[in-house]
Each structure stands twice: as C-alpha cells, then as structure tokens.
Amino acid sequence: xxxxxxxxxxxxxxxxxxxxxxxxxxxxxxxxxxxxxxxxxxxxxxxxxxxxxxxxxxxxxxxxxxxxxxxxxxxxxxxxxxxxxxxxxxxxxxxxxxxxxxxxxxxxxxxxxxxxxxxxxxxxxxxxxxxxxxxxxxxxxxxxxxxxxxxxxxxxxxxxxxxxxxxxxxxxxxxxxxxxxxxxxxxxxxxxxxxxxxxxxxxxxxxxxxxxx
Length: 213
What we know:
Mean pLDDT: 89
Largest sheet: none
Oligomer: single chain
Helix content: over 70%
Number of strands: 0
Low-confidence stretches: none
C-alpha cells in the first residue's frame, strides 16, 4: 500500500468513526433528553398527569386518597420505565452502526446515507417491545395497586374500572404517541447530520492536497 493509499484509508476510517459518533450522540440525546423528560417526575405537581388522575377520581368520588403511597408507587413506576426503555439505546445504535461499518463506496462520490425506510424497520421493533414493557409496568405498578391507594373501599370497583381504562387506553396511547414523536424528530436530525458529514467528507476528499501527491 502506497503512502497515498494509506492516507485515503485513514481518512475513510475517520469518516466511518465520525458517522458512528453522530449515531451514538443522537441516540443518547433521544433517551436522556427527550424520552426521559416524558417519564421523570415533573417539576410541579400540577404537571403530573398520573398523580392528578388519582386525585381527580378521589375528588369526584369524595373519598380520601393515600397520597404517600401514590408518591411511592409513582417513583417505582418511573424507575421501572426508565430502566426498561434503555434497551432502545443499544438496539438503535447497534443496528445502525452495523450497516455503517459494512459501507463500501462503489463510486467516488458515494456517501453513507441513513434512510427513513431503514429507520422505520428499527422503529417498528422498538415500538413493539416498548408497548409490551410499558403495558406491563402500568399493570404492575399502577393498576394492581389501586386497592391500596384509597382509604374508602365502598366504591372500589367503580374506581378500579375508571382508572384501569384510563391507564391502559388513554394514558398509554398518549405516552406512546409522545415517544414516537420524539423518535421521529431525532430520526430527521440523524438523517440530516449523517448527510452533512458525508458532504464534508467528499468535499475534503476532492479538495485535499493529497490528490496532488
């Protein structure tokens, strides 16, 4: 291998590493900044849709709610959800980087491209698994503990049916929609970021002094 070939090879490897870093940073931001913001306890109690649902049902039924246990359950629920969504990071990064590392340009101006179709396949698998774990956590930490939250058990069945319906249908649907929206935004950012990195690589490649060696 000539010196020129070695320089070109190193430049290409740096390009692959740069794209891989974009994927990692994009995915970490998706998890830690975007999705976690939907899960973590909000700064104000008035913004806590889960706790407010319990409070509104208690007020409507004119019964006392054990708020201390609510806080404990919400902490357990949010901790479980946070742990369960971490799979997204490794799954998304590993699948995308696997394709990046196998990239072999056929033409001089070929660059790495991440497509909506490629991301759609990954997102469908993420969404399917996420629905499962979110549903399980809702049942385990929220619905199954409804009976211990209210001091008055006289209208427990009505309360249970209302809260179960809300958490299994309304809340879960809104939660998944919000996550999918966060993913969609990050997907667009990723597609554009990888494209821009490729354009910089080609520009440098075509205008570098190594071409004059």
